[in-house]
Amino acid sequence: MDTYKIIEVKQSVFEDNDRQADLLREELKRDKTFLVNLMSSPGSGKTTTVLRIIEALKDEMKIGVLEADIDSDVDAHTVSKTGAKVIQLHTGGMCHLDADMTKQGILELGTEEIDFAILENVGNLVCPAEFDTGASKNVMILSVPEGDDKPLKYPLMFSIVDVLLINKMDTINIFDFDLEAVKERVKKINPNIKVIPICAKTGEGVEEWANWIRSEVKSWNE
């Protein structure tokens, strides 16, 4: 007879994180703060997209930003110039944020005067998809230069997001990128996903995403 106990560590970690994420969502709902977890590969244009949505909504909402990086404050410095309240989160080498890290950031950010908050997660299509941050909704950016086969390579990420922003649409004629193929692939993985082609550089499509946020913030506060 075996005299040792087997502990499923990964399962335990996820279950604990999920509980903390649910509690954080309840707190955000109570405080009427709508939090978007924004994920993507490095270089997809996350920060530029954040700057665009702040510009689109800054006169309507009080906006806060949580910038997550392994070890840098470059993005936080950039976002701070918009006037939005920003907190830098260093993950200490970890390639994702979990619910506890997010809550620490939210506590520092404060929810009293924040209607809409953005969590710019670490650039990675693997680990961030596995950890519920406690956000109200999940959004992912796929940039045109990355290719249209990403849904085939990283299905989990596409399965857990509510909105897919396809960025850098100004380059679609340069790269071999099939927009309709991407839509078809992600819909098979996630039938309820909303796909919005954008160009953060030019502003193309940003208003459609802004309208989605307006609608979600309203529903979150009801």
Number of helices: 9
Q: Which assembly state applies to the chains in this document? A: single chain
Round the mean pLDDT to the nearest integer and report it: 91
Order of strands across the main sheet: 3-2-4-1-5-6-7
Assign the structural class, choosing from mainly alpha, mainly beta, alpha/beta, alpha+beta, or little secondary structure: alpha/beta
Question: Sheet bearing the most strands, described?
Answer: 7 strands, parallel
Report the end-to-end length measured between terminal Cα atoms.
Answer: 57 Å
Helix content range: 40-55%
**C-alpha-based Rg, rounded:** 18 Å
Strand content: 15-25%
Shape designation: globular
SSE string, helix = H, strand = E? Answer: HEHEHEHEHEHHEHEH
Q: Extract low-pLDDT stretches.
A: none
How many DSSP-defined strands? 7
Would you write up a description of this structure?
- This protein is an alpha/beta fold and 222 residues long.
- The chain is built from nine helices and seven strands, in the order αβαβαβαβαβααβαβα.
- Strands 3-2-4-1-5-6-7 form a seven-stranded parallel beta sheet, sandwiched between helices.
- β6, α8 and β7 form a beta-alpha-beta unit.
- α2 crosses α9.
- The longest helix is centred in the N-terminal third of the chain and has 22 residues.
- The protein is globular and about 55 Å long.
- It starts with 8 loop residues before the first helix and ends with a helix.
- The mean pLDDT is 91.
